[in-house]
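User: Predict structure, ligand 6-acetyluridine 5'-phosphate.
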Amino acid sequence: MPSSTSTLTYESRSQTHPTAAGRKLLQIISQKRTNLCLSIDHTDPDKILTLVQKLGPKICLLKTHIDIISFSSTTTSTTIKSFTTKLQALAQEHTFMIFEDRKFADIGSTVQHQYRGGVYEIASWADITNAHSIPGPGIIRGLKEVADGIGEPRGLLLLAEMSSKGNLGGGEYQERTLAMARNKEWRGFVMGFIAMKEVGGGSGNDGEGGEEEDFIVMTPGVGLQVGGDGLGQQYRTPEEVVGRDGCDVVIVGRGIVGADDPVAVAEVYRERSWEAYEGRVKNG
Ligand code: 6AU
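Assistant: Predicted complex:
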């Protein structure tokens, strides 16, 4: 059953979302008419930049795994810093946000170093990142303290459930993650979840979050057909994910990056995911 949040338009949610990063993302989604996040899981930095230049107009969000990129083996002199600076320039040019899929999972003090420093300096260039809830609230507090010092909107997604077969998320784990996210202390920082269906949403689900609750749900494991990858990944279609299960942003990696014509295939994902959203809002 679609609930109150999933039947609202992205545009109306962009006015009221409790996080600045969420408002910005919802505005981009609504203006560009795309709820597609590209997961660019390539290892060559130059290939990534070339692909992002082509696919930028199709997406609201670019998801990176900065630690899988081979900066040392590149034939050019691309450094981590110059790469992230170029990504930010592309994000400006094509109006999308950047999500570093770091999946933080340690105590607050350690994740602060991982988020702010190290070789990647994630907080300085990624608008959005994500974290497991398993360490407890200290992980959110630690990340938020770093984000508060940046001076640009920064948003956090908590993993409430994963797309992979046999994962331990969902159910009670998801309920406890939701309860953690609802703490007023990080109301302007925790923007939503990685999950397989709508989470929270005030009166629509368990009614505990209040009328104004709005968590953006981003969902990986999306393909043009139902299937898997032989390593546990499970794919569902945009119609199932957005139309039936109330998710807001579809995350697509190999379905686009591995295609012969990534731009044409990205357009199919964009169109199907957008139409699924329009149908959901209309029928809600
Ligand atoms: O479309 P794919 O299967 O090629 O890529 C899916 C991407 C990968 C995963 O690291 C990521 O989505 N992912 C996540 C995220 C985004 O946090 C969670 C999850 O449960 N499943 C998943 O695949 O980059």
